[in-house]
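Methods — Computational structure assignment.
A single polypeptide chain was analysed. Its primary sequence is given first, followed by the predicted tertiary structure written as structure tokens.
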Amino acid sequence: VMRWSNHINLRITMAPRAGQDGHCGNFNGNPGDDTQDAIRARIGMGVPQGESLFRAYVPSVPGKRQSIADCPAAKKAQAVAACRAAGRTDMDACTFDACFAG
């Protein structure tokens, strides 16, 4: 679990359920409909304040989206090495997560 001031990164393990959807996708086995734009079209930008787990609510605001190109070179090299060491095959996604989420 990684906690920041206005969000939390964690891994949830569960069996898929009918109608399941969220910021990580809909788990239907089709990565093509799990893009950031497709997910936002289905569920919106963020969690409503009443459903937030955080005391300090920071609403989602559309803006610049970070990409791997925004990751500093040294940090990107460390991220790639960590992803390879972990045996990951989804290198772009893993590198992005390691660069920006730790």
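Note: Residues 88 and 94 are 7 Å apart (CA to CA).
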